[in-house]
Amino acid sequence: MDVKNDGVLPEVKVKPWGEVNGEPVYLYRMVNSNGARMNVTNYGARVTSLRVPDDSGEMVDVVLGFDKLEKYVADNPYLGAIVGRYGNRISNGNFRLDGREFSLVCNDGDNHLHGGYRGFDRKIWRGEVVTTREDTAVKLRYLSRAGEEGYPGNLEVSVTYKLTNDNELVLNFEARTDEATIVNLTNHNYYNLNGMEDDVLDHVLTINADRFTPTDEESIPTGEVRPVEGTPMDFRSPTRIGQRIDDDYEQLKYGKGYDHNYVLTGGGTGMSLVGTVSSPETGIVMKVYTDQPGIQFYSGNYLDGSLTGKNGLRYEKRSAFCLETQGFPDSPNNPNFPSTVLRPGEEYGTSTVFDFSVG
User: Fold this and answer.
1) DSSP assigned state of 253
2) Active-site residue among 112, 188, 203, 260?
3) Is 92 contained in some domain?
4) How far, in Å, CA of 344 to CA of 153, rounded?
5) How do residues 15-74 score in pLDDT, each as one tens digit?
6) Active site residue 188
7) Within-domain flag for 133
8) Which H or E element spans position 324?
9) Which position among 148, 149, 168, 324 bears the catalytic label?
10) 114 is catalytic
11) Alpha-carbon distance 251 to 256, whole Å?
């Protein structure tokens, strides 16, 4: 192995980080051979920090989070978490599967969002260090019992967080069920490539998608798949996030900015480059690769300064963005969307890579 940064070896250190409902919570501190660092906790399988080098070699923490466990236990907008059993929204909390009607917990007005009131972001996962000399990795497992938040089937789920020596954050998801169910897992990191010192409106974004799925006023997909051409939703060429965010366009008004699922070009057919974000200030470039059919771009519209994060920073409106690789929102109620059904004997497996460099 070509060891860099004065001989730093990849490693994971585990430390106790408190308790939730009497169950121990741990913080997994990962470092690669370049000195890039990531912290992950088994509470909600969350990324709490991710430090990568900028164009001057300084380490920048590029994800929003908190210094203390108590802040994650309190209400927060899924910072760094794995969300599920179904990421994003299901209209009215209802869906039909194999002729049966299922009613999920509605925690977003009349709709179901990110797995319900006590989704995967509120669970204690079992952690295991699986690092090698080449990569640092932690595997987190959770058993979601049948009936949890209204979902059918006992679902065994795992996510592996890997920090490679190429400064890649790799996420591998796996799931199995004993009864037909729906599954849509994603990571909810909030990114700011400037290190949270200001908003992300000057970040330059590219999304490899010709179409998106419009929503109604409650952020529920209408079922339409609309071309991005000629709209402020078009990020097929590098565009500042803030360039058209306040345009007079119905979709931007509904969510006070971007909060939409993009239909990825070639999505669902294997790993491919689906998006790129860069910061003119730090020179950090983040490339996103996935095998998923969609990606949710959220521009941090509902951050309002009420959350105080690391180093006493307040997380203000549009101080971060999310790029959540996923199946489509409300897919169970839209037969024209890619299926998110998982059946006994099948294996759910998806991967996403966030590649950090400077340029």
Assistant:
1) H
2) 188
3) yes
4) 9
5) 999 999 999 999 999 999 999 999 999 999 999 999 999 999 999 999 999 999 999 999
6) yes
7) yes
8) strand 322-326
9) 324
10) no
11) 9
